[in-house]
């Protein structure tokens, strides 16, 4: 026995059978104390303020305020709280929106209980945890994407970041998707896109896409 107090956890999910069953499972583990449950994002914010948990296990898709917005609210009031997203969604946009909101863990439902408990204890200690598949995808997204010589020669006036943004525009990504991919605000992305259009003298986004693809970007 180390005498270390259990991690105080709030479980948030709109499916009552999953929520109560998962809370009961966590409650049977010595390292964890379930201090409350919530069925909506709004309830999660209220319960987090009331119970001050160390970790919130957060679903994403819920009626009204979703889990990502709830995460923002909770961390705005108590930034020391760790949020572990536990969801069915493998969509890249959801993953990166959760990270931008401040989540420090992201697991898919169906993860083994031991993996979830490890994530909870790791996040409570200030660490970051992702499932193996998601971690690989995040690493891939964050890896630098060198531009071809032809692309660099075609647009010599662009900065490295502007080249990256133009390549993602050429790949058909929206400003929101680009923001999530690059961990930028949508306003910053809009500014980059505006600067790119001006520098390459493209009349609009469609012309920029055509010219970028002709130079080998976005493929």
Q: Please, could you describe this protein's structure?
A:
The chain is α/β, with parallel strands linked by helices and 219 residues long. It contains eleven helices and six strands. Helix 5 (113-124) links the parallel strand 5 (105-108) and strand 6 (129-130).
Nearest-integer average pLDDT: 86
Number of strands: 6
Biggest β-sheet description: 6 strands, parallel
Helix and strand content put the structural class at alpha/beta
Fraction in beta strands = 5-15%
- List the strand order in the largest sheet: 2-1-3-4-5-6
Q: What percent of residues adopt helix (DSSP H or I)? A: 40-55%
User: Which parts are unreliable, with pLDDT below 50 for 5 consecutive residues or more?
Assistant: none
List the helices and strands and how they pair.
Layout: E1 7-12, H1 16-27, E2 32-38, H2 41-51, E3 55-58, H3 67-77, E4 82-87, H4 92-101, E5 105-108, H5 113-124, E6 129-130, H6 132-142, H7 149-154, H8 160-170, H9 175-182, H10 186-199, H11 205-214
List keywords for this structure.
single chain; alpha/beta; 11 helices; 53% helix; elongated
Short account of what is shown:
It contains 11 helices and 6 strands.
């Amino acid at each position: 026995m180390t005498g270390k107090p259990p991690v105080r956890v709030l479980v948030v999910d709109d499916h009552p059978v999953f929520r109560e069953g998962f809370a009961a499972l966590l409650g049977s583990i010595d390292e964890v104390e379930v201090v409350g449950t919530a069925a909506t994002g709004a309830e999660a914010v209220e319960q987090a303020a009331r119970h001050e948990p160390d970790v919130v296990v957060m679903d994403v898709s819920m009626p009204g305020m979703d889990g990502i917005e709830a995460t923002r609210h909770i961390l705005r009031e108590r930034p020391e709280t760790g949020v572990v997203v536990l969801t069915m969604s493998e969509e890249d946009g959801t993953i990166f929106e959760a990270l931008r909101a401040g989540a420090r863990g992201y697991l898919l439902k169906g993860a083994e209980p031991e993996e979830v408990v490890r994530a909870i204890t790791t996040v409570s200690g200030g660490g970051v945890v992702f499932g193996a598949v998601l971690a690989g995808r995040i690493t891939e997204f964050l890896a630098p994407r060198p531009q071809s010589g032809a692309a660099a020669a075609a647009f010599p006036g662009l900065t490295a970041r502007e080249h990256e943004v133009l390549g993602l525009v050429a790949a058909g990504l929206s400003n929101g998707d680009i923001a999530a991919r690059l961990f930028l605000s949508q306003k910053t992305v809009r500014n980059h896109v505006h600067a790119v259009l001006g520098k390459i003298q493209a009349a609009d986004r469609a012309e920029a896409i055509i010219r970028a693809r002709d130079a080998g970007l976005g493929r």
